[in-house]
Please model this.
Amino acid sequence: MLAENDFDISKLTSFKIGGNVKRVYFPETTAEFVEILEALPDAAVVGNLSNILVSSKGYDGALICTKRIDEISVDGNIINAGAGVSGTKLSKMAAAEGLSGLEFMIGFPGSVGGEVCMNAGAHGQKISDVLKSALIYSSETGIVKFTNEKMGFEYRTSVCQKKPYIVLSAEFELKKDTAENIQAKMNENLTFRQTKQPSLTLPNCGSVFKNPEGHSAGQLLESVGAKEFRAGGAKVFEKHANFIINEKNATSLDVLTLMDKMSSAVEDKYGIKLVPEVRYIGGNDEKEEDLCRKLKIESIKIQK
Model:
């Protein structure tokens, strides 16, 4: 099992932002994961760090990164994937097996654990449509299997965001389809992402804010001129106002300052308080903590 001290977390975050973390663990099996978390119950659990902002001032605690728990198995129309499997890899694996239902995950930067936890979705599909069960760990119950119904799925959330539950693996029940149909869906989704969203080569953390009920966060932000907003090295993406790009060595404070400007502009005009999808790990900067409280950004000790 790999463990690193004073690890430069910016090497892993999709934002390419973050200072040194005191200690980071990389378990390769669920048994190793449980062993570490039982020894360090206050450790924060992360996946591919695709929608997490880590403070540029670093983090004095421990992180457990599940990205090496990445086994995949196929049994008929059932695919079982470890928490660390990337959404893109899983989507391609399903397509290779002639299985439909995970086309929406093509181009996703996150991993299965976080995507199940937040009920990720796109293009009219979502995790809750295809998840059969998930292997969950909590300090109270140990490892247990949750059915789809027990996951408490709602828009961009699940029971795992309301209780200290961590996804170790997930079982997806898919449908047989032709390679042509599956590839057509994947191509359509990729084209949309390429024309409307920043590529994975541009440092970003995906959608910044959730869509308020009955509204599009991107449209609200565009209507207040957010595409022109920037703070330090961070700027709003010119093709979609609900994305922030790390353009010029942005700091975590730059991103939080920009998020506050975006949120405030929408609230001032429409009276709508945007809810962040971004999560935060830090604790060493008072300005950042104040902005997190104002924006109601969750300081995580859960999997994302």
The first strand starts at residue 2 and ends at 8. DSSP finds eight helices and 18 strands in the chain.
